[in-house]
Amino acid sequence: MENITFVRLRGNLVHHVQVVALLLGVGLFSSFGVAPSYHSSKIRTWSDHVIEVDKTSTSSVWDISGLWDPFFSQSNDHHINSIGIGIAPTDCDGDGVTCDKEEEDGTDPEDPCDFILAHQNCTPTSTWKNMDCDGDGVTNQKEKEDGTDPLDPCDLVVEHQNCTVPDSWKKMDCDGDGVTNEKEIEDGTDPFDPCDLVVEHQNCTVSNSWKNMDCDGDGVTNGKEKEDGTDPFDPCDFVWEHQNCTPSDAWKQLDCDGDGVTNGDEKEDGTDPLDPCDYNPDHVTLPQSGDYLSADCDGDGVTNEKEIEDGTDPLDPCDFVLEHQNCTPSDAWKQLDCDGDGVTNGDEKEDGTDPLDPCDYNPDHVTLPQSGDYLTADCDGDGVTNGDENEDGTDPNDACDFVLGSQTVDPSSTWNSSDCDGDGVTNGDEKEDGTDPLDPCDYNPDHVTLPQSGDYLTADCDGDGVTNGDENEDGTDPNDACDFVLGSQTVDPSSTWNSSDCDGDGVTNGDEKEDGTDPLDPCDYKPESVTLTPSADWEALDCDNDGNPNGTDPNPLKATAMDDSGSTPALTQVAINILENDDYLPNNDENNLGITTLSQIGGNALGTVTFDADTGLMTYTPVLSESNSTVTVIYQVCNVAVDPNVCASATVTIQVGANTLDAVDDTYVSDTNGGTISDSNVLDNDTLNGTPVTPGDVILTSTPTDELTINEDGSITVNPGTSEGTYTISYTICEAANPSNCDTATVTVEVTEGASNIIDAVDDAYNTDTNGGTISDSNVLNNDTLNGTPVGPGDIILTSTPTDELTINEDGTITVNPGIPEGTYTISYTICEAANPSNCDTATVTVEVTEGMTNVIDAVNDSFNADTTGGIISGSSVLDNDTLNGASITLEDVILNSTPTDELTINEDGSVSVNPGTAQGTYTITYTICETANMENCDTATVTVVVTEGMTNVIDAVDDAYTGDTTSGMITDSNVLDNDTLNGVPVTLADVILTSTPTDELTINEDGSVSVNSGTIAGTYTITYTICEATNLENCDTATVTVEVTEGMANVIDAVDDLYETDSHGGVIPGSNVLSNDTLNGEPVTLADVILTSSPTNVLTINPDGSVSVVSDTKDGTYTIEYTICEIANPDNCDTAIVTVVVEGISVNQLVTPNGDLKNDFLYIRGTDKIKSSTLKIFNRWGVAVYEGENYDNVRNVFDGRSRGRSSLGVNDYLPAGVYFYIFNYETDEGSFTDSEYIYISR
Fold this sequence. Notes:
By secondary structure, the protein is an alpha+beta fold. Helices cover 12% and strands 28% of the residues. The chain starts with 11 loop residues before the first helix and ends with a strand. The strands form 20 sheets. A 5-stranded mixed beta sheet has the order 61-66-65-63-64, with no helix packed on it. Among the domains are: 84 residues, Sandwich (Immunoglobulin-like), CATH 2.60.40; 92 residues, Immunoglobulin-like; 87 residues, Immunoglobulin-like (Sandwich); 92 residues, Immunoglobulin-like (Sandwich); 87 residues, Immunoglobulin-like (Sandwich); 91 residues, Immunoglobulin-like; 94 residues, Immunoglobulin-like (Sandwich).
């Protein structure tokens, strides 16, 4: 290069002129050819401007600050290649920074390696480019290209080291990591990466910046890690408490301790990322690994890895598999009591018992209060938790030592199949029966399935003094205090037994024991010991067999007849009820258990004695010689229904009075004509012993008066001239055989004016009853006369004034007014001669009114035929023709009494039986029927039976009646043989030959069934059939079958009852349709087939489509509603059914199937809207809680098959399929409730 030196002019104008001139000159020069290249050199002038000519340049570059470059072209077509001339400031040392700039910067303009890189303002020289100013082994030029700092020995690309590296650089530590650059290159680490080194090769002092760095991102600076002796390049080797800077994101994503929770989450949780056992299980997001797997976080002796395999909780020292303990448990674990049995885990390990089983422990080693699972467990399986047993003071390890009322959990199957009280009924059956499994005397004998043993055998359940074991041996009932063997009493009877009366005799069992009588024998007792009311059974017995039940027997232990007495006038029959005071009962007494007979066995009575055993009456009629004397009759009464007969005797003493003489006053009418009064005789109404006297019986005496005389024959004479008036005369009659036996009477004679006709109204007497009405056959005129001749209605005028009780009617009859009480009443009447109304006479009518009988009973004689085979006479009933008030009677209307004869018996139902062996002949038997409502209203009839030679077998075909319809076919359940008999026993087809001739309408089939022939119209039809004894075809009988054929129904409609369940929300029950199970001719019905009707209730409605609706807010309960379906084609063809709806307000579904099919994916509890508060706990079969929640709502708070409790599974893990147990406690407006049951989880 050639140099051209310019004289520097002052001022910009001169400067520019010089430059332009120079450039013009050079430009002209270069345009004539290619100029040779020039090497540049620098010429320092006072102006510090140099023109540099570079002949090797292929472009014209003019480098001069502040100059215009007229020759510069960026077009590739117009290069000025001959020379490049630039005018630039001077760069004395070639480092690319002008001298002026270096002077400003204070750097050495002569030192190419002393400059400010940022101030390079010209092109460095080649020399400079090939230099290595910073001694890092990379030329300045290469560093320029790499963009590294040629003045910074630690700013380079190592791979571009292209010159010798000085030792100084090698000994340097560019990244400050304490390892020289040389060593880092040897190690293959990056000498510029302070975190890329071999720690063991640190051979120089680390820089402070390196110390403050955190190479491994663990939040602890390298310097701190050096102090702690941890590895600054291991993000998991640090002291947790020395974290003094923010950890890196990469570190946060790591899991140093392998517990599955990132370091970052552990930082947030406040747990130790270096401690595999310090973490929040809810934040596990990574697979657990490393130290965590080999650790035993809960100290239970099972590594976490094994617990994960087992599905147990590695953080729960009490959730592990005992057989999988593979490391030494911690001391803390040893001091725990996982199962709450009061024995530490450590002691259980030594004892060889299961620390997880609250029921497997050594009671001698209990050192802690029993708690937790132990208290809720039921070690002995008796249904009472250990905790409750501790409170009750019972033994939690003895399945038969518990308080029944404390049973709160289900007993074990072993307990259920055991028999604690030895009564032979398993505990489980006793639970179902509601009996006490601890009480050997409280059980259901029907449920005994085990041998009775133990306490049961030594107990005395019924308190009868005989142990159950002895009762079993004796074959008596150990639960019946009155069923025992007296000789087996070995223990003291109970107070209840002592105060009871087994045999019902009124003497307590205890008193019978003291008396030495048999408490089981109702007829063995001391009467003076009776303190109780005898039982009805005892009263129905007849201890002394006298026929009188104990209840009505004055002397139930001894048949007794008591003496009787009576009196009677001479020659007058007397009736004495001699059984009235005896133990024996008359035969007509329905209480008589026997047959009473009466007979005379002694006495001095000479008269006639009769006995009526039916009534208990003895009648006696004294003879004349016994008048005015005392006679005796000794009688014997027997019950002949027992063998031997039971008899007793007594004496009847009868006082016979003297003959009774009765002179009765007389009244006559006469007239002044005088003379003997026609038909007068004072003796006519006098009696001796009630019998009219005759002149030979008596001595008649009388003293005549001035007006009257009683003649010797008893007639009365009115002395002539006697004036009108009323006169009296007395007379006396004395017994001819006993003149001291006398009686006196007065005769009154009314003397009237004499007339042609004498009218005589005579007194009358009648009997009737309180029913009232006209007295039958009454007529007051019947005994009245006119001139001694009976009067006729035309002869007289009859007048009478009615009384309150009686009326004499115009025809002379007498009417008793209805409703009058019993008593004797009188009424007077007057008859006057029709032709002479002043000729009158008056008489008195006396009426005795007795209690009326409402009903007229009539027993009518009967006749029957029978044969010598005996037995009940077919079709016999003595009552068939008897009547009560003219109507046929039934056994409910009357009491039937009859004394059997040797040949005949009238049975209680009125049928007549011929005693077997009775010979041919005619026999009679009497019977009496008495009105049930009035036992005194009776009547007796006689039954006559003609017995002929009998046939061996009596065959009886009985008429039948059936109903069929026009659809024809066999009548259901029809069989003509059903009521037929052979010798009184139902016949079978094997016994008889059945024959019948079909009619147009009916057929009797071979099996006895009856068929209605096709086409038979509605109506009543008959058909006869004959049955003959198969072994004696001549022994036959015929009967008639009557069939009422009704219009048949073509279709059979069947409404079937329905059952639905729903909740109290009301509305249509889903899926309900009452028609779904109804049929028409066996086919399902549709609404097109039937008319559906139903009346809604207060709760239920059956809708027109058959669905069922429930009123909202219906209380829990069971409700019913009826509906009727009728065939549309035949609305008379109907059937009715009942729909039952069970409303359950709150209930727990018992199935969970968390398989995503939206059906039972969670546990559904019906009626949660009615619950104020609730808690739900779910346990697995080991009693471990797998879910615990409050205020279950079927929406947010639900059990969906995942663990939410103390479980071996992690939270959110789905539980295995199987059976679980829940306890649901809830409170409603109606109170607090507990529901507990099993649920099933299925996949």
